[in-house]
Amino acid sequence: MQPKRLTLFAGHYGSGKTSIAIQYALALRRSGKAVTVADLDIVNPYFRTKDSEQRLRAAGIDLICSPYAGTNLDAPAMPAQTYALVADRETYGVLDVGGDDRGALALGRYAAAIREEDNYEMLLVINRSRPLTATPEDTVAVLREIEAACGLPFTGVAHNTNLGPATTAQDVLDAIPYAQQVCRLAGLPLRMTCAPAHLCPALQGRAEHLFPLQIQPLYYQLSEEDSYGKADL
After folding, report:
1. Domain range enclosing 192
2. Ramachandran region of residue 164, left (φ > 0), alpha (ψ -120 to 50) or beta?
3. pTM summary value
């Protein structure tokens, strides 16, 4: 995928957009670009780019997120630096947009500036395994709700059907017709087929636009060493 100056990832809750946004930003940085990640998710406090802050900083990527991220206070506050990122025509920005139409409302305040520059990619992250996006029709309905809420049209689709750590290559392949139908109904191109990196060799040549993912641990996935009594988690 040819990178645009701004790349936005949006989708239903649990679609995996945060992990994809983080790893896409890391890929941009490896290609030599100056990159900043902005977390616009003001709805879901549990899957946040803040959890990957050290990894991003170590790669030379700036992070913009709510001042309350990483605390027990979940307040819908957006930092002023996001406006600067949207206005800056030199830095590549990766924006993690909140789930569904409620989360996409935060993006609306930047829509006019993004439209004016007209150098953006907005990808709908889809996951057939999520209850409210199990059919192409339901998925496109979510797409339209997000577009209406934020005032920006999607430009492509990122297919990310998965079953967490249990995902197999066949799970990804079985969901390809679903992703193709979403693209047909929405009139959008498929930009990515995302899969755990260890599955990509088996998917090579069988899935279009493969994008390997290093699965990000969830905030509650403690190691045995960190848990009381070394419990089996």
Report:
1. 6-230
2. left
3. 0.86
